[in-house]
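Example record

One chain of 245 residues, shown exactly as stored in the release files.
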Amino acid sequence: MAIEVFNRYEIKFLLNRIQFEAMKRAIADKVVPDKFNVGDKSYTICNIYYDTLDDELIRQSLSKPVYKEKLRLRSYGVPKANTPVFLEIKKKYNKIVNKRRTTIDLESARLLTESQIRPENLEYLNPQVTDEIMYFVQTYRIMPKAYIAYDRQAYSGIEDKDLRITFDKNIRTRRTELSLEAGDYGRQLLNEGIWLMEIKCAGAMPMWLVKTLSENKIYKTSFSKYGTEYKQYLTGKDTQVRTYA
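Predicted structure tokens for this chain:
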């Protein structure tokens, strides 16, 4: 049974190429690549985001409430029928993010999210998390709304084990063929050369990291992949978020 539970702050930044390269140099002796970062190369994360018929969850999220929650199905690369995937419920209260997830197979995930059929007798499924997700599904009557994928480089602190830094690029989205096994494609969400950096920590950022951000004029921003995709979807325009060198 695989389960991951996180409680942490997540701070986001949009970087241009020069800032990205400066950050990579600055953190080189402070962090180590995560287990998916083989050879310190990017790996692909694919997600299906769920919402109500009238997009209640993302509309509420964009209003910046004190509390918000969302559900997504995640895989590392394009999965096959027997590839383990992750069903995740993510909540944010007063700037603290709580994420709970469990391993599940694609068909069981589809039955749970789309037909409200709770999987049983899966030895790798976590019952408590499954109960929470089942309640979420029944409360909101969700459906798949958006596919969002990106290429990630991720690192964990050497001394500070709670520190995690991720860099995402090539964020692509679509609103058709909303299944992970349908393939990895979609339109670009950001302009070429932009990286989304997230700093995830249990408390305050270490001073060396604060200094690095200041020296490179990197400032936190409010950014949501799904929120940005939704706003672009509403306008009907293929507009992209920009940053400059």
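Notes: The chain has one domain: 3-235.
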